[in-house]
């Protein structure tokens, strides 16, 4: 019994000595590392154990300053991309980094944090630097370098071939694994490592396969048979075929405005742009009208339709109106209602929709306060008719000549019983008159000559006289069809050429009041409008559609040398047109009385496409 007691006392004594020895050692250890980084503490890949706050601060500043401007290399195929962290949008925060080291390893009281101190004897603590990444800047730089090296996937979609819709098959892509690249970059930033990063390519599958585009294809095929005509007065717009399909957008099912989901998490916006689908969950190609494209289409129509309200003003010198501002009612396209009308007409989901829909555009009108009859005694109080033509694609000199010719006839007053003569008003079409050289048809060739484009003016005057029901005393059709006079849906035959002094355009004022001819050139719309003002006597005009016959195909294209164009430049100045005979009739009534019953015949020879080939220096 005594032996056991002695042994117990010996063990207790040994334990006591050991406990106090360890306590002493721990106290010494705690005192030695008070206000210093604990053992096994690493800042990135640098051991900072035993360093005080000032030393740690110096180490952090030195490491960050030396690394932030150092070039990092990214190897992509055979290309090397070199950028410093700062250039890549990485910003190191030295103050926050220092504080993080202090929070983890430092304590002012040597007896506090004993668990962490004991842990530090056996476990390594690695502290990464604090930094932020401007992902937008980083992605822009990567995109700039990688775009030419990557091949993005292409979804199956709907395209057009010779005016017919077809499914365009999907194409697989190959892109750099951005997630791995970012992970490798973070590893280099955490350890201040200049080791090059090798980019890895991965296959990028399209979201939409061709078999998932069949339903959309059927909808577009149905739309391809639709024709929507929107009109206001003389102006018309057509939505059909590729024009109509150009307003569509295709997107994977589930996406809205180019994204799958948009929400906020703790006031931070989160946008999901991409989802990897399992085979059984692959999305179907969806089709809908693109709101922005429809809005832009409406904007284009509004530019033509919208007009300010203008009060009438007239200054007459006894021969010609030197200043005339006709009363103009303001008008504005109702954009919201137009948008609804288009949406209702475009039947994407109705395979059996009407093939042709006519829409009269809704236009709000604001009346002028001072109207025409209040400012003159000539009877020039209202528009009795107008004529329009278009000249899109005209060279600068041709457009200039159209403007000059319009000025020369603008403001012309024709008294009752008098005849309007185009050549008498315009005079010689020559350089002395101010006309510039533009392309004309002369002796079967397209050549530069003074006044090219003047027939645009005479043609438009002819159309206005036709619509006014005034007797046309002289009119000659062109020898060849001219593409400008068939723009915006005009049929062949509604043209009038002049060739001073022999070939003229004339019409007579057989009303009881003066008439005024006004010309307006809109260069933005490439549109010429002739308005004839007077007092309506109730006459009504019926113009038939032209009967086209005796068709002859266009000859092969013609290529002509042109020293005014640089060598090697090829410019098309005329477009192929078949030859034909056009005949339309006009009947003019006043009440039940038939005033005019006539036919206008035009014999157009076939005309080839003409290309000018530059031979100049």
Automatic annotation (TrEMBL):
Domain YoaR-like putative peptidoglycan binding stretches: 84-190, 280-347
Stated name of the protein: YoaR-like putative peptidoglycan binding domain-containing protein
Assigned keywords, A-Z: Membrane, Transmembrane, Transmembrane helix
Keyword Transmembrane carried by entry: yes
Segments crossing the lipid bilayer: 12-32
Top-rank taxon, per record: Bacteria
